[in-house]
Amino acid sequence: MAEILVVGASIAGQTLAYWLARHGMRPTVVERAPRLRVGGNGVDLRDQATEVAERMGIMPRVRAAAADVRGIKFVDASDRAVARMNMSRSGEIEIMRGDLVALLHEVAAPEAEYVFGDSVRSMEEDGGGVTVSFEGGATRRFDLVIGADGLHSSVRRLAFGPEAGFLRHMGHYFAFANADAALGEDRWVTMYNQPGKMAGLYRSGKHDQAKAYFIFRSEPLECDHRDVEQHRALLKEAFGHETSWRVGELLEGALADPELYFDALSQVRLPSWSSGRVALVGDAAYCASPASGAGAELAVVGAYRLAEELASASDHQVAFRRYEEGHRELVRRKQQIGPNVRMMVPKNRLGMWARNTFASSMGLLSRSS
Ligand SMILES: Cc1cc2nc3c(=O)[nH]c(=O)nc-3n(C[C@H](O)[C@H](O)[C@H](O)COP(=O)(O)OP(=O)(O)OC[C@H]3O[C@@H](n4cnc5c(N)ncnc54)[C@H](O)[C@@H]3O)c2cc1C
Q1: pLDDT in tens, 287-313
Q2: CB within 6 Å of ligand 1 — which residues?
Q3: Cα-flanking dihedrals φ and ψ of residue 339, to 5°?
Q4: Which of 189, 221, 266, 314 has the fewest CB atoms within 10 Å distance of its CB?
Q5: For the chain, what is the radius of gyration of the CA atoms?
Q6: Distance (Å, whole) CA 68 – CA 83
Q7: CA–centroid distance, residue 150 to ligand 1 (Å)
Q8: Which residue puts its alpha carbon closest to atom 36 of ligand 1?
Q9: Ligand 1 centre from 253 Cα, in Å?
Q10: CB 173 within 8 Å of CB 230
Q11: Cα pseudo-dihedral 335, 15, 116, 212, rounded to 10
Q12: How confident is the model over 176-212, as pLDDT tens digits?
């Protein structure tokens, strides 16, 4: 029975662990955080991803937990809605990231060994397997190692090299934080723009708390993804002088939130998703960025496909190749995020006006006050 180390206990890692176990393999999931990380806004499941969730038996609970957001409302400085855009699309379901991570944990945990608060320090591969040294001091042997450890993957660094070679800066930075629900309209995402900037509020119909988010255009900055104090300073620099709409209140809450999440809007582009006995899945391999609305979908579908190929192929090399051949096209399409970014963060006032006018003319949006 193949022993497989899965690094990262989020959407990709837990979906993979579940399906590996269902195919008779023995997954061990190692997560750097001391517990599941349940932060984040709504993420979308659609098409093949909902089919996978259906097969895992979690779809009724995904539907029950769905964020139930009706659409996006663009507002002006005095909180007047200048446009509304309906987001509901048949076959698509939006769920808070944390709810999905927790649901996946419920079905994967009985099937896999979990180790929290640890990570991989080094990996040494030979003809028969991979010897892994953990930061906590243990050394263990596995047949394969799969990196499901997100945008700044350590497995990718160890097996493929420094991340600078694979991360593509998409011209913006973003932040998420918890926010006071009273600041937003129930079941709407509210967005306020200044040229090249957006501050917004995500207000699900089923959650007491709302989520603030911020995006701003910028060339690459000196930024360490682990340095929270630096993130606070950069966010403050970008939005600290904004006094219009509710930016000040949202910013104050975000700067005080210990779960503030800040990063560059980046994509991961790798010529190959595997090297020897190590492969990558989810954001670690092909992050499309939160602006794509497709991170969860790509993670779920990719993890399911990888497990299927490992179960059916004659060896891991064939499986890794087929996984990649089968999943590349979906990744390529979902990485085309230009229109989404232009919609959320127009570059200038003309762009803001064009966005509102376009949405109105499509009949997706009704002007209201
Ligand atoms: C806290 C958080 C909030 C997010 N919020 C949003 C959001 O609001 N909207 C959105 O579109 N996307 C969000 N994302 C990204 C989104 O989850 C992914 O784009 C997508 O769902 C693919 O998931 P993934 O499992 O590949 O990666 P991720 O969800 O990023 O998960 C990676 C996991 O690996 C763990 N990890 C990282 N490094 C190591 C290591 N060295 N060793 C062990 N474990 C490690 C992380 O703690 C995390 O649990 C968020 C991610 C995180 C971690």
Answers
A1: 999 999 999 999 999 999 999 999 999
A2: 7-13, 30-33, 37, 39-41, 43, 97, 119, 148-150, 154, 176, 261, 282-283, 290, 295-296, 299
A3: -60, -35
A4: 314
A5: 21
A6: 19
A7: 5
A8: 149
A9: 22
A10: no
A11: 50
A12: 999 988 888 889 999 999 999 999 999 988 888 899 9
